[in-house]
UniProtKB/TrEMBL annotation:
Signal peptide: none annotated. The keyword Transport applies. Its EC number is 7.6.2.9. Transmembrane segments: none annotated. Keywords: ATP-binding, Cell membrane, Ion transport, Iron, Iron transport, Membrane, Nucleotide-binding, Transport. One of its GO terms (molecular function) is ATP binding. Residues 2-223 form the ABC transporter domain. This is ABC-type quaternary amine transporter. GO terms for cellular component: membrane. It is an enzyme of class 7 (translocase).
């Protein structure tokens, strides 16, 4: 499991993340919900190893991740715009990390088929990202993130770039996909609906601090 203990990230005099303690059990989806500027992205980047901690610790299954570089943490990142390689087909995008690892090509082909099935894009193998809708691109990004069977997936506002209709449709799918894949996920968002659509647990963040956390229906009271 993921454990953050008193994690602080400072930029100069400002603590973007201020003594945050959070735990995430295998198979759980935790949403960190808070307004723009409260430190969500910084927190996610710190977990990914993209941001040095000023103090505190991040560990996985009891092992401190200090000094462990991003690509060795076993985490997958999926950011807002999906960031697909525009010149590669859908299949090549999904296969990217597997090929980097020199996975045998027969295995890559099987895995790509499984993943495209999982995200509802069977048959899209040869399409280029430029020919896909926003929601389809997000699904490809998700398949790509899941390809290497990450022990944790980090999602930064995965649905925010989409229009309202598409967001609603993809939210249900994304939740099912995460659960079907048994994935542990940490997502950050400013969007209350996105958090509720996807997560089991909620941490409410304000000005760098987690002010409340728990099962989603326990934490949230209608204001
Ligand atoms: P959120 O993701 O919730 O919008 P961020 O984590 O992006 O918030 O930012 C939290 C705070 O840290 C903000 O006040 C932001 O201006 C500041 N901040 C973020 N990144 C940097 C940086 N690289 N240098 C200086 N300040 C930063
Ligand atoms: P080094 O000890 O090799 O100088 P750093 O301390 O700069 O390495 O950290 C290397 C990586 O580990 C960075 O990506 C940083 O975000 C991350 N990191 C640093 N301290 C911690 C910590 N206590 N827990 C988890 N990750 C950490």
């Amino acid at each position: 499991m993921l454990q953050l203990t008193d994690v602080t990230v400072r930029y100069g005099d400002t603590a973007a993340v201020d003594e945050v303690t959070l735990a995430l059990e295998p198979g759980q989806v935790l949403a960190v919900l808070g307004p723009s500027g409260c430190g969500k992205s910084t927190l996610l980047r710190a977990v990914a190893g993209l941001e040095p901690l000023t103090s505190g610790s991040v560990s996985w299954a009891g092992a401190d991740l200090v000094g462990v570089p991003t690509h060795k943490r076993g985490f997958a990142l999926m950011f807002q715009d999906g960031q697909l390689f525009a010149h590669l087909t859908v299949a090549r995008n999904v296969a990217y990390a597997l090929r980097l690892r020199r996975t045998p090509s027969a295995r890559v082909a099987t895995r790509v088929r499984e993943l495209l099935d999982l995200v509802g894009l069977a048959g899209y193998d040869d399409r280029l990202p430029g020919t896909l809708s926003g929601g389809e691109r997000q699904r490809v990004a998700l398949a790509r993130a899941l390809a290497v069977e990450p022990r944790l997936i980090l999602l930064d506002e995965p649905l925010s770039a989409l229009d309202a209709t598409l967001r609603e449709r993809l939210a249900g799918d994304l939740r099912e996909i995460l659960h079907a894949a048994g994935t542990t996920a940490l997502l950050v968002t400013h969007d209350h609906d996105e958090a509720f659509a996807l997560a089991d647990r909620l941490a409410v963040m304000r000005a760098g601090r987690v002010v409340q956390q728990g099962a989603i229906d326990e934490v949230w009271r209608e204001p």
